[in-house]
Amino acid sequence: MTLNDLRAQGRLRPHRTSRRELDDLLRLAERDLVDASIAGLSTDRRFMIAYEAAVALATIPLYASGFRTEGTGHHQTTFVALPLVMGDEFADPGGLLRHVPYEAQSQRVRSHGRDVGDGGGGAPG
């Protein structure tokens, strides 16, 4: 997969960013990481907030490289494009995720937190 492949698939488009936009993403991620550390929140809610911080942080190099995601699956596209703009050494630090499909890593957990009436299907914390 290349950046050109993602563009041809309609998953990326050119984007001109600004220092302010990148700073805003960084502030958003910092805020989300602080919020994710709030002990009174359920574990699944904390995960969802931390995940949003990860998306914001992964978006910074993508924007700085002149691209933004487009269409459905934009979180997945962001993480697929990340090693393409940063280099293969950032694709999977430690090799932890190489055999786990993206959907199994995040979508199931994020959806579970939204779909279960008590905010996560179990005891908070």
Rough outline: globular
Strand content: under 5%
In which range does the helix fraction lie?
A: 55-70%
- The arrangement of helices and strands along the chain is HEHHEHH
Q: Write down the Rg.
A: 16 Å
**Segments where pLDDT lies below 50 for 5+ residues?**
116-125
Q: Give me the number of helical elements.
A: 5
Order of strands across the biggest sheet? 1-2
Summarize the structure.
The protein has one domain (3-115).
Structural summary, described in words:
With 125 residues, the protein is mainly alpha-helical. The protein has one domain (3-115). Helix content is 58%, strand content 5%. It contains five helices and two strands, in the order αβααβαα. Strands 1-2 form a two-stranded antiparallel ribbon. Helix 3 crosses helix 4 (74-86). The longest helix is centred in the middle third of the chain and has 22 residues, at 43-64.
Primary descriptors:
mainly alpha; two-stranded antiparallel ribbon; 58% helix
Write the layout of secondary structure elements.
Layout: H1 3-8, E1 12-14, H2 19-36, H3 43-64, E2 67-69, H4 74-86, H5 102-115
Helix pairs in contact: 2-3, 3-4, 3-5
